[in-house]
Design a protein that fits this description.
The protein has one domain (about 10-65). The protein is globular. About 5% of the residues lie in helices and about 35% in strands. Strand 1 (about 10-15) and strand 2 (about 20-25) form a beta hairpin. It is mostly beta strands.
């Protein structure tokens, strides 16, 4: 299931299969806000994705819940 709007509390997956939980959202006003994602390192295949994602970057994630 793909939804374009990531929200705080979602569990998400990257195209590479890494699974993580969205744990924080910070809105910086004029700059893009940032989501913080805590990744399950056992799903990352040796390369852990970035912890901070803009809304545009997060739109590429698949929302699992």
């Amino acid at each position: 299931m793909r939804v374009s709007m990531v929200e705080l509390g979602n569990v998400v997956r990257t195209k590479g299969g890494a699974i993580g939980s969205v744990t924080d959202w910070v809105d910086h006003g004029m700059r893009p806000g940032l989501f913080t994602i805590e990744w399950d390192e056992s799903t990352c295949g040796g390369r852990v994705p970035a912890r901070h994602w803009t809304r545009a970057e997060a739109a590429e994630l698949t929302i699992l819940s």
